[in-house]
Known about the structure:
Blueprint: E1 2-3, H1 7-17, E2 28-33, H2 51-57, E3 62-64, E4 70-72, E5 75-80, E6 86-91, H3 105-114, H4 122-126, E7 132-139, E8 142-147, H5 154-158, H6 168-173, E9 190-196, E10 200-205, E11 226-231, H7 235-243, E12 249-251, H8 258-263, E13 267-273, E14 279-283, H9 293-301, H10 305-313, E15 318-319, H11 343-352, E16 357-358, E17 364-366, E18 369-370, E19 372-378, H12 386-401, E20 404-410, H13 412-420, E21 426-429, H14 436-443, H15 458-469, H16 473-490, E22 494-499, E23 501-507, E24 510-511, E25 529-530
Parallel strand pairs: 2-11, 2-12, 19-20
Antiparallel strand pairs: 1-5, 3-4, 5-6, 6-8, 7-8, 9-10, 10-11, 12-23, 13-23, 14-21, 14-22, 15-22, 16-17, 17-18, 24-25
Helix pairs in contact: 9-11, 10-12, 14-15, 15-16
Amino acid sequence: MKRLTPALLVLTLAACGAPTAQTVQSTSLTWAIETQPITLNPQLWAQNKVRLLVFNQFDALLSKAEDGTFRPWLAKAWQVSDDGLTYTLDLRDDVTFHDGTKFDAAAVKANLDQFLVPGYNPAVAAIQLKAFDRAEVVSPYRLKIMLKEPDGLFLDFLASPYAGQVSPKSLKSAKDLKFGGPDLVGTGPFILDRYVQGQELHYRRNPAYNWPPAGAAHQGPAHLSEITYRFLAEAAVRVGALTSGQVQVIEGVPATEVNLIKKDPNLALQASLNSGTAYSYYFNTSHAPFDDQRVREAFRQAVDVDAVLKSVYQGTATRAWSIVGKKSPFYDATLENTYGGDVAKANALLDEAGWKQRDAEGFRVKAGRRLTVREVASAPFVRDRRDILAQAIQAQVKQSAGIDFQVKIVDQGTAQKALDENEYELFGNSRGDSDVGAALNLILPAKGAINRTRFADPQVDKWLATASATSDQAERKELYAKVQQAAVREKAIVFPLYVPADQIAAHKSVQGLGFDPSSGTPASAYDVRIGT
């Protein structure tokens, strides 16, 4: 057996070195957030913006540091067999779920087994847990997890929101397991006691909490006695609520308001790039017009990305050149400045592809058919002014190349129907996985759960599978570089636009705000406090 980290030592040092909450004060906070959750069940987590809510209510088995190393959380130590097929977890014995039941090895097994229920979360079962075979309870606080094949990303799964531990009792009794909510019970520092659809979430402090991840800023219960998250989708409304004192914290600060926040002596602004993939347009290669690589390349060349980002985000956005975000250690910088912004080339490519004629509105046509590109976006996933970004690109590709780019923002059901029925040409997406390999495994393989390009390349699939099976980071970097070159440069199935980032603005009296070190998204409210 090989021990991946001196976990017990790290845990002890964290407990000794971090300040302890001497007194538990009664303080409340109101925080305005941009995105309404489509689910509060951590096992069905799908929105990067909801990560902070997940880790208010639930704790994962491990945590992940910014340097990529793993730290103890509900698992205080772990071992991996030399063949990479057996993971042994030693669990904390002092943890209790919000419903009073004990957290133990049987609970972890129940959580893992839940993913095997047909139709529960087929994407995770097929990708993140594709190597999972079974879990065995060795003793009350020791669990063995057996894999069918080595998986270099398995520890990442154990540190993800998907590994947020749910009370087995509530897994069986929850009224709405798909959505979650107050009757889905975790072990986290806060207890969700109220959800008003379309308006707010309310959490109260878990007074028994004393098991934060290694490296937390304090021990014991959260500083805040309660926290309310208000859903304010409009950026101007969020900023207005902050400046008027209706809320003390907001996330999703629009570029148009950054200077206003910075100039206010009573407010503070923080920002962090996200991990995972860049926000990109994925071309549907299964039918016209993007079944022709020349048209895919032409669309990219028709857009002056730098100008668009400057206009929409006023200099606050970081341009992307690869499907992999710049924060990732696997980012391939050799792709920079290799495509885009060449209008003459865009038009030459479209002429070559047979789109030579124009209709009365100036759009290109071929065989009586307009060069139309449809994006159908789900409203819960539209954030960061991505609707405004799409409008800017829409105007550019029409003016520079005669492309009819149509954007529809619809409800989740309508968007999913369009995707399932292949009624789209372009799909916008970013993933916030702390290890980008998890995202690539969903997006690029022929059988990937969200392979919206419908592109299949056995060589790319092989590179991804090999990278997932090894823990050799140098080998993974080499393999992911090949994947990026294929997807971005050689096949042009993706159009990277910008690297997602999160911003938090708050009254200066609010302390302890920060970002999850592995994802770059806002951290939970565990360390947040009012005052110095």
